[in-house]
Amino acid sequence: MNADDFTDEAREIMARVEERHKGDRVLDAGALRALAHPLRLKIYDILSQYGAQTASSLAERLGESSGATSYHLRALAKHDLIREVEGRGTARERWWERPVGGVSFAHPDAMRTPSGRAASQMIMSEFFRNRNEQLMRFVGAGVRDLSDAWTESSMISTATARLTPEQTAELAHRLMAIIDETVDRYRDQQGDDVRPVTIRGDVFPLPEIGDES
């Protein structure tokens, strides 16, 4: 693909998205290995979605001891995957947060080794398993338990289109641009009716019929 394959509007959107994400962290082999643990990944995910937590609040949410969550928090912090919140907490009860910014699990050097590929695959599998559990929990109970305002404003949708690689790239960048704008605008929003809302975008080619294996 090259720039001539896209309209001026598409090139502008793609350039904006790429500029926005050029500082995203690509996790090295050490960070991948540190994150490749089911409980650590859940802790990292909670900090990403719900904001700063303590070892005690994580232990209560995950059904673990605070000693266990404290240990895994320190392991994540060792590789700068999370950090202590400055000016908050005490020596006995520290608050932890995930730094703002995107991350990639596909470090080129790490992907050249069996252990690096295994760690990356494990992280991606657990990440999407956790996300799928959230989706199914919403489908099974959230629709019933949430207010009408939340159920009417939520969306679960799938569609299929016949696209070229260039059209697929343009679509992915358009969706990412909308997501980036929303995240940046409302990142620190507070209020009585404000809560974390998960946003998920999947754009990928389907296998040909007969090639599903």
From TrEMBL:
MF (Gene Ontology): DNA binding; DNA-binding transcription factor activity
SMART domains given in the database record: HTH_ARSR
Parts of the chain that traverse the membrane: none
Keyword annotations: DNA-binding
UniProt-listed Pfam families: HTH_20
Stored InterPro entries: ArsR-like_HTH, HTH_ArsR_DNA-bd_dom, WH-like_DNA-bd_sf, WH_DNA-bd_sf
HTH arsR-type domain mapped to chain residues: 30-144
Name of the protein this chain belongs to: DNA-binding transcriptional ArsR family regulator
Taxonomic source organism: Microbacterium thalassium
